[in-house]
Amino acid sequence: MNKDFNNIINPQSIPEGILTFFQRWFNDYTDRYIYDKKRQIIDFYEMKRVHTHEVCRYITAVTKKYTNDDGKINLAEVIGLFHDLGRFEQFKTYNTFEDSKSVNHGYLSCRELVKSGILLKLNPIAKNTVLCAIAQHTKKHITHNLKPEYVFWSKLLRDADKISLFPFFIENIPEWERNNELVGDGKISDKYLKAASQGNALERESYRNLNEFKIFILTWIYDINFAESKEILKEQNIISLFFKMLPDTDNIKCFRSKLLAHIE
Ligand SMILES: [Fe+2]
Q: What is the CATH number of the domain that holds 35?
């Protein structure tokens, strides 16, 4: 079987025409939330659309390092495009992006997609790959015993999602320092730092103030899966930029060394 033919029938590939259709559908869907009655942009929703485009950019960049197959790169883009679809309905219904105070937004994204019927344009394997990666992106760990092909796409999305959020926090935390209820006393407990230095991402909502929140976000680095994702973090100098916002103590330096070792 020649390689091109193999690509055409590859069940996980998505043709260019379907990707374009999905992009238009996504814009129409999100427009309904983003614009108020006076056609003014509502920032909370717009922020999620910008985040989506960032995730698409990173997930395709990392995928391109592993394959030249356009159908596969399109699949990556579709996963990125739809991964946070449920964020719009989540904020509209619950007025929050916190899953613990509303619903799991990965589940909500899948529900909105299934309800729309648009994934019927895909063959069942591509459809399940998209839904599975989206459902997996909000879990603390990828489900045990998942098929390897699903694990691959789930890991890609989890990396792209995190890579896109680090710069967002670096940009916004200085503003939050001045004006956010999370600031608190800024004390990082030894216990928290010790837990953060163990090599695992910390539990959501385990932090008590903005400085511990920074530590929490940094522990996502332990969950970065692909070498190409680590390269992007290094190119963007993410670790150094985050540590500029933290106290310069010996324990903090030790934590920093652990993270640097992880992305080397
Ligand atoms: Fe998400």
A: 1.10.3210
Rounded distance from Cα 176 to ligand 1 centre (Å) = 21
d(CA 211, CA 219): 13
Ligand 1 centroid distance, CA of 26 (Å): 15
For ligand 1, the distance from its centroid to the CA atom of residue 20, given in whole angstroms, is 22
Please give the backbone phi and psi of residue 139, each rounded to the nearest 5 degrees, phi first.
-85, 150
Cα 135 to ligand 1 centre (Å): 9
Domain count, the chain: 2
User: pLDDT digit of tens for each residue in the chain (264 aa)?
Assistant: 344 444 445 678 899 999 999 999 999 999 999 988 888 888 889 999 999 999 999 999 999 988 899 999 999 999 999 999 999 999 999 999 999 899 999 999 999 999 999 999 999 999 999 999 999 999 989 999 998 889 999 999 999 999 999 999 999 999 998 877 788 888 999 999 999 998 888 888 789 999 999 999 999 999 999 999 999 999 999 999 999 999 999 999 999 999 999 988
What is the whole-number distance in angstroms between the Cα of residue 105 and the centre of ligand 1? Answer: 7
Distance CA 254, CA 258 (A): 7
Domain enclosing residue 61, as ranges: 3-159
Residues 106 and 139 in one domain: yes
Expressed in angstroms and rounded, the spacing between residue 66 Cα and the centre of ligand 1 is 24
C-alpha separations of 37 from 2, 82, 87 in Å: 54, 25, 20
